[in-house]
Amino acid sequence: MKELLSTLAAVAILAASCTTASQEPVTTTTVATTTTAVPSTTEQVTVTTSTTTSTTTTTEPPTVIDEPATAFGATLAEVPLITDGTYPGPTWPRSLSGVSFADAVPEALRDDLVADGFVVEPNSDTYPSDFGLEALAMGGQFASVYERLSPYGSGERAVFVTTDAAYHHWHLVFDAILRDTEERRLLPVLEELVGDLLKASREQTASMSGTAMEEAARRAEDHLSAVATVLGLDAGSLSDLARAEVALVEEHSRATFPPTIVGKVVGSCREGMWAEPACVDYTLMKPRGHYTRSEDLTRYFKAMSMLGNTGFSLTDPDVLRVGLLISRLVVTDPDRAAAWATIYDPTAFLVGTADDYTPFEAAEATATILPDGIADPAPLTDDATVLDVGRAVLDMRPVLIDPGRASLRTMGSRFVLDSWIYDQLTDPNVSGRTVPSPLDLASVMGSSTATAVQSTAGETEAFPDYDPRVAELGESTQARTVDDWGRTVYDAWLYALEPQWADRYDPAYPPFMRGDAWDAKSLTTGFGSYTELKHDTILYAKESMAEGEGPEPKPTRHWVEPDPVSFGRLAAVTSMLRDGLIDAGLMLGDDYDAETGDPYNDDERTRWLADRLIDMFERFDLIARDELADQPIGDDDNQWLAGIGGDFERILDTAATGEGFDPAPLIADIFTDPFASRGGSYLEIATGPPDLIHVLVPDDRGGFEVATGAVYSYYEFWNDERLTDEEWWDRIIAGDLPDRPSWWTDELG
User: Fold this and answer.
1) CA–CA–CA angle 293, 669, 438 (5° rounding)
2) Residue 82, class by beta-carbon neighbours within 10 Å (0-12 exposed, 13-18 middle, 19+ buried)?
3) For residues 303 and 42, what is the distance between their CA atoms, to the nearest angstrom?
4) Distance, CA of 276 to CA of 361 (rounded, Å)
5) Is residue 128 exposed (0-12), middle (13-18) or buried (19+ Cβ within 10 Å)?
């Protein structure tokens, strides 16, 4: 228990690097470098070339500024769960007699509609299995579903705007903003940084020629030349080891030791992954997520993957020596240090701080061992000294995900709460358990339904440590404050998902939201949006692994899902994203006008998207609160909901301006099982074309109607390779879909 509490204490400060600060940070003109690990130097190192020795000037060791990512100038507004109250509206009727739009529901589903108050119509019943990619892109969108429902589409129907649709359009905007930031802001800085590091590494190698450090310097140079090559820069003639490293990145098919770092080409180290921190899983370098959408995004992904997933073992002096020399190049030059921070800071705000150790932490640790710190590498020829530095790095703070493979990384992958939870619920923390499930995350975040599903599946019986660990993790996670959730946009997204997984006080909500079937719908909603979260951040987040005739027409009343907390939290996370990026100068020009902003102007579209989304979510929130109070909504609101498909379509079009929009279904791998104990090494979560949901709701005239909307379809399966979106779309088009999860089939299938 003490070990767990210690780890949880570390999680509470996961936006910090647990280091000290004594100097002002270096800043740039484009990014407010006020988050974790901002470097500061007082003097640039001067290297004198010599055939036998190298000399450097004495300089203050680089320091690390310890500030949370919310220093970007954005905070997360608190939206509490609704925990009391009684819904004053009616229960649903026990027959469909006199119910408007009942004929829209397939006859085979009507008994379930009456029994539960709603029913889900699977996409397999509404989409042909032989449609092509264009049809999937056009018809398989939430926006297209709502367009077809509106009076401006194929015919008037009562609309039910789901939280699923809201979460999906948040994803569209977040992903568009992230792509824009990466392509237009971060990629040019990365090119400059890597090019400058390569140049400096060649000077470093020349200065160390003939010394005991020459071999390590050459390996550092080879590694950076490989990074530059996959980034698309002209790195000149590559060594054999650098070419081998580039080939491993391009093949992205196995885990092995990086040739440039260990100084030789070796075979696969799949089994050794558990024991060897220096082993690199090159399958993670397969471009996935939105990084297959353009050549620029692909090369950005590959280079950042190398910098984030190549670990320099803290217990292998030959490997660590190379990592320290690369770190030295980063932290002892103000321009390179500022460029590093320009990339690191916004990605730390969006996703999280590095779980493994950064170059600046390595510099600070080295300063505790050597009088001149990392500025003078001459003492690092001694293995014992290098190992002392490794131990000093380890003493700085705990690595929380897969701590047995803690390492130094140039631009490390980021700590994310869900990966840590999976790590805590698999071996060795839960003895013998090597395969987690997103149900673990939902259980920890409060879903008794998810816990019951896992118990039925035999997790409790097979792994006695499982239930106590879930309970401990749940207690700590649910005790998080809004400030904890507001440290990163990633965490704020999880905060927005909590209402889908938290057990709620049933009487406050309409009766159709109180049964087991709605619990399954909420799990699906949460997992659908969670898939989009993992998809959008797949480059940065650290992945864990195991050790009749109808009535006469009436004015149609339209609905939003009566869940104001989810809509309110989505408005809060969107505001946090917008305000943080505006504060950092990463989103738009100074001449933006909120009233006249042009969504098709590249400098303004992301701000326009964020503003429109916030307005939409806040309006959904207010309407949902009126619904919970059984109050009729205003005519303007009702008319707006009737045409909501048009609003959704404009967001979809604007988010994809100049690119054409892609199919809505997405896929992301979230866990690696090297032993393939479930028939595949990678746990994939995915969404398909949206399902329809039909809900029995009051029509504001004393009767009832069936309101229809769109919800996520969700899939979860093990596969023998990491899949891209394009590969997943091919499977959908071919009708080669896995089964839905058993809990979905039992309640909704």
Assistant:
1) 130
2) middle
3) 29
4) 21
5) exposed
Helix (H) or strand (E) holding 618: helix 605-628
Q: pTM for the complete prediction?
A: 0.88
Residue with tokens 């390779």: 721
Q: Give the DSSP H or E segment for 668.
A: strand 667-672
Euclidean distance between CA atoms 413 and 542, whole angstroms: 5
Closest CA to 176 of 526, 680, 669, 653: 653
User: b/e per residue, 672-700, with b = 16+ CB within 10 A?
Assistant: bbbebeeebbbbbbbbbbbbbbbbbbbbb
For 652, phi then psi, to 5°, come to: -60, -50
Contact 440, 333 (CB under 8 A): no
Of 720, 9, 11, the residue nearest 419 (C-alpha): 11
Residue 279 near residue 256 (C-beta atoms within 8 A): yes
CA angle, 627 then 628 then 629, to 5°: 90
Would you say 197 and 217 are in contact if contact means Cβ atoms under 8 Å apart? no
Top-confidence residue, 67 or 92: 92
Residue 275 confidence (pLDDT): 53
Packing angle of the helix pair 187-207, 334-350 (nearest 10 deg): 140
Q: In angstroms, how far is CA 404 from the centroid of its own chain? A: 23
**Amino acid symbol at 45:** V
Tens of pLDDT, residues 310-367: 999 999 999 999 999 999 999 999 999 999 999 999 999 999 999 999 999 999 999 9
Strands (E), 238-395: 255-256, 280-281, 312-313
**What pLDDT, on a 0 to 100 scale, did the predictor assign at position 537?**
97
Task: Kindly give the pairing relationship between strand 559-560 and strand 682-687.
Answer: unpaired
25, 337 contact by CB (below 8 A): no
Helix (H) or strand (E) holding 729: helix 725-733
**In angstroms, what is the C-alpha Rg of the chain?**
27
Alpha-carbon distance of 726 to 44, in angstroms, equals 47
- How far apart are alpha carbons 398 and 555 in whole angstroms? 61
Cα separation, 79 vs 486, in Å, equals 12
Q: Are strands 559-560 and 158-161 parallel, antiparallel or unpaired?
A: parallel
Q: How far apart, in whole angstroms, are the C-alpha atoms of residue 40 and residue 63? A: 6
Residue 589, pLDDT score: 57
Neighbours of 28 (CB within 10 A): 16
Concatenate the DSSP letters of all residues of 177-203 into one string: HHHHHIIIIIHHHHHHHHHHHHHHHHH
Terminal CA-to-CA distance of the chain, rounded, Å?
Answer: 41
Distances (CA, A) of 533 to 173, 317, 491, 640, 665: 12, 38, 10, 28, 13
Q: How far apart are CA 544 and CA 683, in angstroms?
A: 11
- Tens-place pLDDT, residues 538-552: 999 988 776 633 344
Residue 174 in contact with residue 614, Cβ under 8 Å? no
Query: If we measure between CA atoms, which residue out of 217, 171, 158, 181 comes closest to residue 633?
Result: 158
Q: Apex CA 441: angle with CA 439 and CA 445, to 5°?
A: 115
On whether the CB atoms of residues 642 and 156 are closer than 8 A, the answer is: yes
- Tokens 């590498």 appear where? 377
For a pLDDT cut of 90, what percent of the chain falls above it?
71
